[in-house]
Amino acid sequence: MKPIIVANWKCNPTTQQEAKRLFNLVKKGVKDVKNIEVVICSPFVYLSVLKANGAQDCFWEGKGAFTGEISPLMLKDLG
């Protein structure tokens, strides 16, 4: 099993433009990295824009009245 490095952006950046720039910088910086998987976990609002390969968090319920939460099923649907 190869090591995994996960980059969790927390509550940064604050704009889509900044998020795209940061995503592309990270992607370019790790393109030659061998035998290590790099996972970018951006804030939820940028997942579909960046096609990031991880989410920062999700709620354990599949669906329901949980204001502000993101379910695993929602993340799966994003791809």
From TrEMBL:
Biochemical pathway: Carbohydrate degradation; glycolysis; D-glyceraldehyde 3-phosphate from glycerone phosphate: step 1/1; Carbohydrate biosynthesis; gluconeogenesis
Pfam families to which the protein is assigned, alphabetical: TIM
Descriptive protein name: Triosephosphate isomerase
Gene Ontology molecular function, alphabetical: triose-phosphate isomerase activity
Species in which this protein is naturally found: Candidatus Nealsonbacteria bacterium CG_4_9_14_0_8_um_filter_36_17
Protein family per UniProt: Belongs to the triosephosphate isomerase family.
Cellular component terms (Gene Ontology): cytosol
GO biological process: gluconeogenesis; glyceraldehyde-3-phosphate biosynthetic process; glycerol catabolic process; glycolytic process
Subcellular location: Cytoplasm
InterPro entries linked to this entry: Aldolase_TIM, TIM_sf, Triosephosphate_isomerase
Upper taxonomic lineage: Bacteria, Candidatus Nealsoniibacteriota
Keywords of the record: Cytoplasm, Gluconeogenesis, Glycolysis, Isomerase
EC primary class: isomerase
Domain of life: Bacteria
Major subcellular site: cytoplasm
Subunit: Homodimer.
